[in-house]
């Protein structure tokens, strides 16, 4: 084992773990204030439920020896996962690092269903999704499954993470239906600085996500690090130009979205393409996602925070362009179509379509099963009140005009300032 590789992977694991609460801030700023805590909790809770089932079963289904579709039970309950070497790092560290990927992938889906899905069914869904959808597909691509044998390239999660989550988000948003206020009134971000903060922290954590996928402090990590730095810069510039041409203004929400789209797109290619190819890839990726956001807004699909246009399209473009720009001289893996190997683009297309089909079909089944047991959607009353109060019994921000009283075995009651002033002195407490 290598001490330097182990040190880098310890740091990378911490960076990727930070990305999940960072995602909570990015998503949380985009929703209305009455749903800010619920949106944050959708990310934070994934740290618990998905992290736990990953250690108990998910890691085994993803990385234990098995079939072309699914890993076996050889690592069930972390049996056989100890301090022995996995490459040049301890096996238990490799398991933990991969667990951070499973956590954030499940949390990504929440952006499509915020402000209307009940918290309990959401927890059940992401727990089962991480086992039934994510872990098997990770095995297919990274664990020696059929896509790995086919030669699919996915350095850090274009298909496994972003296309996978994007397809699930589309199905979940479609099945839950639109929010009650969708297309009736403007639903605006309540805290744009949170959005920019979340995007910045995501970019910071993404260096562990992409460069850590080299599994060591080596040349491949250096390449992935540089590509992760510069691909989003190109996305941001192209997005800015598109905004200026269309509206004459550049919004902070648009800039933050551009950054994360660039990160999604470069993820599958990070350690496989040259820096100039990564810049070109990042610039190209801005176009379909930008217009995908505009198109979605004209439909009845209430993908609340545009997970499909950002993650789904960004990951799809990145995965396909990996098959174009991959360069063996930089990665040692395979050349893409631009360097004399057009077959690689076809393989990338197969992997992308497989991710969409696998995730969409099983997401539909899971939500149907959970919905047959408990309601998926919050009631119209709870949705109007806000999921912070109805699902968690607390608020992100104190209300100057009154207070929210939560009593045991009682429904939430809004008490106005005038009523408090008129109450007897003893009644104030």
Could you give the topology of this structure?
Blueprint: H1 3-30, H2 36-63, E1 85-86, E2 89-90, H3 91-108, H4 119-142, H5 146-150, H6 158-176, H7 192-211, H8 219-247, H9 252-266, H10 275-296, H11 307-325, H12 328-331, H13 343-373, H14 380-385, H15 387-392, E3 402-405, E4 413-416, H16 417-422, H17 425-428
Antiparallel strand pairs: 1-2, 3-4
Helix pairs in contact: 1-2, 1-3, 1-7, 2-3, 2-4, 3-4, 3-6, 4-6, 4-13, 6-11, 6-13, 7-8, 7-9, 8-9, 8-10, 9-10, 9-11, 10-11, 11-13
For the record, the CATH architecture of the largest domain stands as Orthogonal Bundle
Between the first and last Cα atoms, what is the distance in angstroms?
A: 62 Å
Write down the secondary-structure element order: HHEEHHHHHHHHHHHHHEEHH
Shape: globular
CATH superfamily of the largest domain: Ammonium transporter AmtB like domains
State the helical fraction. Answer: 55-70%
Largest pleated sheet? 2 strands, antiparallel
CATH class of the largest domain: Mainly Alpha
> Could you please say which CATH topology of the largest domain applies here?
Ammonium transporter fold
Strand content: under 5%
Helix/strand/pairing category? mainly alpha
| Unreliable residue runs | 412-429
Strand element count? 4
């Amino acid at each position: 084992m290598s001490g330097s590789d182990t040190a880098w992977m310890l740091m990378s694991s911490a960076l990727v773990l930070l990305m999940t609460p960072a995602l909570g801030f990015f998503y949380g700023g985009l929703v209305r204030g009455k749903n800010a805590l619920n949106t944050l909790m959708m990310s934070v809770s994934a740290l618990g439920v998905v992290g736990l089932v990953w250690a108990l079963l998910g890691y085994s289904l993803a990385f234990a020896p098995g079939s072309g579709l699914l890993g076996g039970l050889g690592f069930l309950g972390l049996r056989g996962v100890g301090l022995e070497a996995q490459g040049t790092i301890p096996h238990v560290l490799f398991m933990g690092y991969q667990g951070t990927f499973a956590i954030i992938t499940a949390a990504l889906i929440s952006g499509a269903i915020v402000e209307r899905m009940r918290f309990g069914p959401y927890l059940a869904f992401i727990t089962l999704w991480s086992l039934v959808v994510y872990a098997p597909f990770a095995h297919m691509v990274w664990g020696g499954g059929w896509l790995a044998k086919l030669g699919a390239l996915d350095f850090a999660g274009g298909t496994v993470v972003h296309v996978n989550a994007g397809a699930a988000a589309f199905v979940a948003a479609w099945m839950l239906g639109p929010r009650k206020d969708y297309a009736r009134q403007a639903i605006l971000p309540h805290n744009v600085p949170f959005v920019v903060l979340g995007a910045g922290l995501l970019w910071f954590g993404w260096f562990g996500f992409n460069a850590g996928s080299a599994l060591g402090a080596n040349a491949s990590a250096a390449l992935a690090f540089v590509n992760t730095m510069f691909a989003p810069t190109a996305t941001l510039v192209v997005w800015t130009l598109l905004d200026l041409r269309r509206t004459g203004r550049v919004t902070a929400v648009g800039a933050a979205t551009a950054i994360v789209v660039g990160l999604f797109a470069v993820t599958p290619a990070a350690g496989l393409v040259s820096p100039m190819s990564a810049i070109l890839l990042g610039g190209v990726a801005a176009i379909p996602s930008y217009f995908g956001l505009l198109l979605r807004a004209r439909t009845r699909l209430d993908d609340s925070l545009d997970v499909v246009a950002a993650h789904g399209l960004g990951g799809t473009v990145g995965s396909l362009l990996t098959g174009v720009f991959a360069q063996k001289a930089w990665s040692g893996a395979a050349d893409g179509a631009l360097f004399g190997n057009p077959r690689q683009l076809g393989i990338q297309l197969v992997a992308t379509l497989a991710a969409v089909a696998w995730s969409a079909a099983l997401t539909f089944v899971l939500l149907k099963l959970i919905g047959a047991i408990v309601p998926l959607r919050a009631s119209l009353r709870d949705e109007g009140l806000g999921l912070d109060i109805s699902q968690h019994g607390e608020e992100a921000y104190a209300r100057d005009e009154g207070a929210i009283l939560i009593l045991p075995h009682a429904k939430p009651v809004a008490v106005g300032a005038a009523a408090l002033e008129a109450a007897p002195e003893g009644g104030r407490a």
